[in-house]
Amino acid sequence: MAAFALSASFGVARTAALSCSRAVKARSARYATVTAKAVSVGDAAPDFTLMGAGFEQTTLSSLKGQKVVLAFFPAAFSGDEDGGCRCQLGALQSISKEDGITVLGISKDTPFTMGAWSDDIGIKCLADMQNEVAEQYVGTFDLGKFLDDLDISKGFTGYVTSNRGCVVIDEEGKVVYTWVGLDDKGASHPGILPNTTEIQAALGIGKVNIA
Which residue intervals define the domain Thioredoxin in the entry (predicted)? Predict the structure, then answer.
């Protein structure tokens, strides 16, 4: 029987992912997917240049030769340790810090916001203010409508941002894993979180043991 023997960070990341998954039981609402995911496994990852803290630019193609995780999220400073964007990125911290994988968070927020959020969350985050990169990789949805329909906000409909999603890119710049938070009807649902174990497997962290 084959089984993954993952790196030392596996237990930490898996525990975080399971903790997050328990918080995914959000109330149902009407919500709209504006664009569906664009990339598939085997595609060449579309290049991009985005700004982060201090308006520093990061270009994906400059990272060729490294494995890269792109973590798309709807909004900085949202969620907590048990759910939402803070949980999503928090579950990737060990992959970044312990395994040395380049992890880039991406959302519609401004570089000003991304600077403070990067310091807070411990992961480099980039501003995709026009959703151009999100539309290429994971698609977008109307977060404002989602929140209005839950009676959390009012008059927020029309605020379109990234779907929650994750893309893993190999050293050659090819997409080897893609995930988007869609419900069983194919509609965006920001309460659904990625599986950190799947992300680690796509990165090839650890090795396969034959028992």
Answer: 39-204
Does a structural domain hold residue 78? yes
Give me the domain span that covers residue 80.
43-203
Which are the contacts of 158, defined by CB distance < 8 A and separation ≥ 6?
A: 142, 144, 145
Active-site residue list: 85
Cβ-based neighbours of 62, under 8 Å, separated by 6 or more: none
Residue 132 lies in a domain: yes
Per-residue pLDDT reduced to its tens digit, 60-76? 999 999 999 999 999 99
- Please give the helix or strand (H or E) that residue 179 lies within, else none: strand 175-180
CA dihedral 8, 13, 18, 19 (to 10 degrees): 120
Largest CA distance in the chain: 57
User: Would strands 124-127 and 2-5 be described as parallel, antiparallel, or unpaired?
Assistant: unpaired
> pTM of the full predicted structure?
0.82
